[in-house]
Input
Amino acid sequence: MSVDTFHYDNKIVRNFGIATMIWGIIGFLVGLIVALKFIWPDFLGFIPELSFGRLRPLHTNAVIFAFAGNAIFYGVYYSLPRLCKASMWSKKLSNIHFWGWQTIILSAVATLPFGITTSKEYAELEWPIDIAITLIWVIFGVNMIMTIMKRRERHIYVAIWFYIATFVTVAVLHLVNSFEVPATLLKSYPIYAGVQDALVQWWYGHNAVAFFLTTPFLGIMYYFIPKASNRPIFSYRLSIVHFWSLIFIYIWAGPHHLLYTALPGWAQTLGVVFSLMLIAPSWGGMLNGLLTLRGAWDKVREDPVLKFMVVAITAYGMVTFEGPMLSIANVNAIAHYSDYIIGHVHNGALLWNGGLTFGMLYFITPRIYQTKLFSTKLANIHFWFATMGAIFYVIPMYWGGITQSLMWKDFTDQGFLTYPNFLETVVQIVPMYALRAFGGSLFIIGALFGVYNLFKTAKSGSLLSSEKVQAPQLREHFGDENESWHRKLEGRPLKFTVLTVIAILIGGVVEYMPTALIDSNIPTIESVQPYTALEVEGRDIYIAEGCNNCHSQMIRPFRSETERYGEYSKAGEFVYDHPFLWGSKRTGPDLHRIGGKYPDSWHLRHFYDPNSTSPGSIMPAYPWLLSQNMDMKSMPDRIDALRTVGVPYSSRYPEYAIDDMKFQAERITQGLRENGFDVIEGVEITSDKKVIALIAYLQRLGTDISGETDPFEELPSSKKLSNVILEDN
Amino acid sequence: MYKEVLRSMDGIELFPSISLILFFSFFLILIIYLIRTGKDFWKEASNIPLDSEKIFNSKNSDQ
Output
C-alpha cells in the first residue's frame, strides 16, 4: 500500500473567511441604513443611489450572496478536502472562483444602487452578471466534483451530499429563473409574464432559501458539529433520510409565497401540502444536530463555537416550524405582506446562517493560524450581542407585523374599514421599527467584536497556508459486488449527482409545466392590452426605483382588501407583465388599482414630498424624478425586446414608440399645467421628466379590466397603424 | 411548438402517477434498507470527520 503526501490549501479558506467578514459587516450596515429609513424616511435622503428601493436589494444580495455565499465556500473549501482526504482538484480554479465571486459582488454594488435591476427578488442582477454567475458557479462545481472524484476516502460523507445538492440545484434554479431577453447592455425582460413569471420567481426564491441558505449550511452542520464536539453525528441513518426527503420535498414548496394570489388554486394547494410535509425532514435534521451533543452539553457552556452552533440549530428548528405554519392558507392570509415575514427570515439569517458562520470562523481561524483564539471572553460577549440582537430584531417584527395585519382587516360594527387610511396602520408600528433597528445595531456591534477577535487571533499566529497530510491511495476498484445499492451510490459521485438532479427537477416540472402548457390556467381578458411606450418607460422607472420593495400589485380576494383597494386581481390582467411586479411586502398600500384613483397632480406632489399629500407618511421623497430626464432613445430597442418575449406589438410599433412617448407625455404635462402644476417649489415640470412616465404607468394600473378606454387612442401610432396590437401592418 | 410535442405524447397523464409511485417506493426501500443495515454498519462513515487528522483512513488500508 502506498501512502500519498498532499496538501490542504488553507490560504483559499482564509481568503473566503476574510471576504465573509468584510461583506458581512457591509451587508449588515446597509441593512441598518434601510432599517433607519423606516424611522427617519429622509435619512440619507434625496440621494437616488441611497434610497430605500435601491438599497434594500443591495442589502439582501449582500447578506445572501456575499456574506452567506462566502461563508458557504469557506466551509466547503475547509471541510471538503478533509472529508475527501485530497487537496482541492485545482488551485487555479479555487482562485478563479474566489476572485470571480468577489467581482460579481462588486458588480452588484456597482449596479443595484444605480437602479440597474431586474426587480425579481434575490435575482435582481442584470443579464451580463447572470452570465458571470453561471460561469463562476460552474467553476466551483467542477472543482468540487473533481475533488470528490480524486478522493482517498471511499465513502462520501453526508456533508458532501448536501454540497452536491447545493451546486446542482442552484445551477438549475439560476438558469431557469434567468431566461431573459436583453434590450440594452444593462436592461432585459424575462421571457415569462405575469402568473408564470411569479411562479418561476417564487420557485426560485423559495429554493434559493432552500439550496443556498439551508442545504450548504446543513452540510456545514454535519461536518462542524461532530468536529467541534468531537463525537460522531447522532444518527447517520437519519442523516440519509434527512438528505433525500429534504431535497425532494423542498423543491415543491415555492407556491406558498403566492397564496390567495392569481396563481391557479391547484398549484397553491400543492405548495401548501409540500410545505407542511417539510417539517419532518427539517426537524429530523435539527434533532440530529442537537442530539449529537448528548452528554457533551458541558462543552457547550464553555466553547463559543458550540454556543453559536447550538443557537443556530435551535433557530433552524424555530424557522422550519414557522415556515410550514406560515404556509397554511389562513395563517398566511394574516402574515403575508406584513413585517412578520421580515422577522421570520431574520430569525433564519441572523441566527441560523449567522450562527453557523461565526461558529465556523471561531473554529477554523485558530486552527489554520496554528494558535489559540485571542479571547474566549470576547467571543462569548459576541455570542450574547448576536443572540440578544436577533431577539430584539425578531420579536418587534412579529408583534408589529401581526398588529398591522389585523388593523388592515378590522371592520367597524357598521361594516366599514376601521382604518381606511393605510397610513394609520403604518404609524402604529413605527416604535417596532425603532426596536428592530436597535436589535440590528446590537448584532452588528457583536459582529465587530468578532472581527476584532479573529483579527487578533490571526495576528498572534502564522498562517499554515499549505497543510501537509498523508493518506493511503484509494484502491481502484472499490467494494465488492455484494455491496448494497446505496453503498455503491455513495461511492459514485456522478451517479449520485444525476439522481439528485432528478429528485429536484420533478417538483419543478410538475408545478411549472401545466401553468405553461394549459391555456385555461390563465384565462385571458379581452380588454387587457399591452402598455404604451410611455407606460413601459414608467414601468421601467418603477422597477429601477425598486417601488416593488414596498408596494404590492396583487389584491387578494378578501373583503378587507377589495374594500380598501378595489376589485381583486385576476390572472389574465398580468399577461403582458414582463416581469410580474406583485411584490411581497406592503410597507405602503397595494397599487394594483391605483390607476385613476387620484389626479395626476396628486402623484406629482406625492413624489416630490409624500408628506404634502399624506401627512406622516414614511415614504421617502423622490425629488429627482422631477429633474431627471426619461430615456426615450432606447425605447425602440426595449419594444423590440418585449416583442421577442411575446408582447404582441405590431412589428412597426418600434418606429412610432418615441413619437407616442412624446405625445402622451405632453398630454399629461399639459393637463398638469392647466391645473396650475407647471412649477413645484421652483422646479419646472416638463414633459421629458421621469415623473411624467411614472404617472402614466400608475394611472394605467388595474384599469384595463373595465375596458372603458383604449390606451393607444389618439397616440400617433394609432393614426399610422391600423392596429398597434397583433396586426402586422 | 413544445406544447404540441407534449400534447401528442401518448399516456402523458400517467406520468405524474408513475413518478409518485417511483418516489414513494424509493423512500420505502431506503427506509427498509437503513433499518436492515443497522447502526454499526454506518459507524465508520459517521466517523469520517473525526478521522481526518489520522494518517490512515478506515476502510482503505490493506486489511
